[in-house]
Specification:
By secondary structure, the protein is α/β, with parallel strands linked by helices. It has helices at 2-21, 63-71, 94-103, 113-120, 128-131, 198-201, 204-209, 225-235, and strands spanning 24-30, 36-40, 43-47, 81-83, 108-112, 134-137, 146-150, 153-159, 175-181, 185-189, 214-216, 239-240, 272-276. It binds zinc ion.
Length: 279
């Protein structure tokens, strides 16, 4: 019996070691459309959190979440930085972001130059202090990726054209952010990236050099072979969750359109995923 107990406790230790290797690294919470909160302990970032327009087609931020965000209530307490992918109304609202940064003075904002410039229109002379926390990012198409740093965050940015390239909205500065929290958890947000490998092949080394734990491609990467190929072979994350999902897509995966089956999607505000360290 005793020998059995020892074997049993050895087994328990083994199990707990395995469990430790799979310790939850970070948690991501879905806001709406392409809006996300990523948390690793006290390190918290938001991406595309505030917008007003859904074209009657995408999720909007629920009022309760918006209130908590402005009040700095959990889970939005202690947010370190906000990232804006691009200056489109279903991702970014300049007056609301101006207001948020005014009432939450600990948050830093990283935004394409176009979005940062739009905020100026809603600022007065007293808001100059807000812009000390705004990092405007100016990247042209085909520019090499850049790296920025702040406490707890390694931020890599590259401009990927907006979907519709090369016919539509080529002037929109759409940024793809690869952010590493506490040197440990790496997530990738792509904005409304165009799913054409020509934009990714030129920076093949950039995409290969860092292991991404979780990627959040817009849903159209899942129903195009080229998009799937980019996610699998350029980004190669441990896991992907599609965002920019139309409201009409059910929160029951069994009811998803056939082209999305087998993928993972955020469909309802408040959904979460745990990011595990698998490698
Ligand atoms: Zn857009």
């Amino acid at each position: 019996m005793r020998g059995l107990l020892i074997k049993f406790s050895a087994l328990l230790i083994l199990i707990s070691n395995i469990a430790h290797a799979q310790t939850p690294a970070s948690i991501v919470t879905y806001l709406a459309n392409e809006g996300l909160l990523v948390e690793r302990g006290d390190t918290k970032i938001l991406i595309d959190p505030l917008f007003r327009i859904n074209f009657g087609y995408y999720q909007l931020l629920p009022e309760s979440m918006e209130d908590a965000l402005f009040e700095g209530q959990p889970p939005f307490d202690g947010v370190d930085a906000i990232f804006i992918s691009h200056h489109h109304a279903d991702h970014f609202s300049a007056p609301d972001m101006m207001r948020l940064l005014s009432v939450r003075p600990d948050i830093k904002l990283y935004a394409p130059k176009q979005a940062a410039a739009a905020m100026r229109a809603f600022a007065n002379e007293y808001d100059e202090i807000v812009f000390e926390r705004v990092v405007p990012i100016e990247l042209a198409y085909k520019d090499a990726p850049i790296t920025l740093e702040m406490e707890g965050l390694l931020i890599e940015v590259v401009r990927i054209p907006h979907s519709g390239w090369p016919r539509r909205v080529t002037d929109v500065e759409n940024l793809s952010y690869r952010v590493t929290l506490d040197g440990a958890t790496t997530v990738l947000h792509m904005g409304d990236a165009d799913p054409n490998d020509v934009h990714f092949a030129r920076d093949a080394d950039y995409w290969a050099k860092t292991h991404t734990h979780m990627a959040f491609p817009p849903i159209w990467f899942f129903d195009s072979p080229a998009g799937q190929d980019i996610v699998e072979n350029r980004i190669s994350p441990d896991h992907s969750v599609g965002v920019h999902v139309p409201v009409e897509v059910s929160d029951d995966p069994a009811k998803w359109p056939v082209q999305y089956r087998g993928f993972d999607l955020f469909t309802e505000p408040g959904q979460t995923r745990t990011i595990l360290y698998k490698k």
